[in-house]
Amino acid sequence: MKFYLNEASIHGQFADTQEFRVALEAILAGRSRSTVLAAMRTVPELANRPVLHDQTFRQVVQTWRGSPLAGSLLAWVGKNGPFVHDDRLLEEDDLFHCLGVEVTDGGLGEAGRRAKASENSASMSFRGGDPDFAQSPLPIVHGFLEEPFGTYSVENFWDVDDAIAAIMEWEKPANNWQEMIEIARVRFPNVLLPDTLYRDVRIAREPFSAVIRDQFYVLLGFLNEYMKGRDENGQEGPRSRAILKEHFKGRRALFSPESSSNKDDFRTEMTFPNPDGAGMIFAHWHGKISHRFFRMHFEWPTPAATDKVKVLYVGPKLTKA
Question: Rounded to the nearest 10 degrees, how much is the dihedral formed by the CA atoms of 158, 160, 161, 162?
Fold first, then answer.
């Protein structure tokens, strides 16, 4: 799978340079987490794309000169690449459009050429503007819009975590408990997953299950989204509140606390070392994995000062009489 940065999705839609900086930092963080995203190709013309109505990419980055962010961007976009033109497919009728925009020489143009050649390709876009490229798949039109030779679908991402999750699914899946945890760390950056999870004898002696793995990832996905929906002060935004309403409340909720009697009878079993090394954590809140009656215990509520929720146990149900 090859990724291409959609530079056409930067077209003056940002309210200020800070909004753009946050979007760039997310992409650079994703490149550090995934070798596939680290190889994402771009074009030198990205430097001339309008970020604000009166400032280009190059002009904005120059205001950050001397910062690690500027250094990383200059190394990627301005010097080292990888670039589309380093490995561009030849196409006799070389004209491509997307959402009414010509993209022949850009990232989407190459993604379209790859799709036409039946190769796996995907794009990374920025949200907002007109047209808004935050949609998937993107239709890449080969030829003139009035008389196209064909149209090809390219999977498109505008959220780095979603891109990494998809990459993990395309690549070899986890086949043991340790791999399950290590892959989860990449997919869910707002969840803290210590080595003690797979070293715990209670799960180590259990045969691995792909069904449990997949249900575990579903639970982590909701926790990760909840944390992403909080602000820097720990205040819950609409995204976080929606997850609480849908998955933490009601008789069929995926996440719930233990009963009062279980909290008394199984307090020792549900008390875990703090991954930070600061004492112990009583974690009776758990996510339900129906297959083989597995449970995932985590610290709840999550302190306002942190951006990660601590998962402290995954394994067979701890409250069995």
Answer: 40
Range of the domain at 196: 172-316
Local structure of residue 303 (DSSP, 8 states): P
Q: Name the CA radius of gyration of the chain, rounded.
A: 23
Residue 154: phi, psi to the nearest 5? -120, 125
In this structure, the answer to whether residues 178 and 153 fall within a common structural domain is no
pLDDT tens for 77-87 read 888 889 999 99
Say if 82 falls within a structural domain: yes
Those residues with Cβ within 8 angstroms of residue 94's Cβ, 6 or more apart along the chain or in another chain: 104, 113
Q: What is the DSSP letter of 243?
A: H
Q: What is the pLDDT of residues 186-214, one digit of tens each?
A: 888 889 999 999 999 999 999 999 999 99
**One domain, residues 122 and 93:** yes
Single residue among 142, 161, 180 that ends a domain in this structure: 161
- Token couple for 85: 């033109």
Q: Say how far apart CA 265 and CA 183 lie, in whole Å.
A: 34
pTM to 2 decimals?
A: 0.67
